[in-house]
Amino acid sequence: MAPKRWRPNLPFKDYRFEIEDTIPAMAATIGKVVMVGAIAATFAGALAQ
């Protein structure tokens, strides 16, 4: 990594997305959906009994 500048990361400034960012973003999205689905299924299972 070669950062181009040393300044604080201010909100809404300097958010650059590159092609390599899509893989972790998709993995995180899939993981979140699976986790929420598992919690919902557990909750629904507890209500069904």
Task: Describe what you observe in this structure.
- By secondary structure, the chain is an all-alpha fold.
- It has 1 helix and no strands.
- The longest helix is centred in the C-terminal third of the chain and has 27 residues, at 22-48.
- This is Integral membrane protein rhomboid family.
- The chain crosses the membrane at residues 23-48.
- Pfam families: DUF3360.
- It comes from Vibrio maritimus.
Poorly predicted sequence stretches spanning 5 or more consecutive residues: none
Shape annotation: elongated
* Share of residues in helices: 55-70%
Helical/strand content category: mainly alpha
Q: Give the rounded overall mean pLDDT.
A: 84
Query: Please, how many helices?
Result: 1
Q: TL;DR of this structure?
A:
The chain crosses the membrane at residues 23-48. Helices cover 55% and strands 0% of the residues.
Name some characteristics of this structure.
Integral membrane protein rhomboid family; 1 helix; 49 residues; membrane; 0% strand
Q: Can you lay out the helices and strands and say which pair or pack?
A:
Layout: H1 22-48
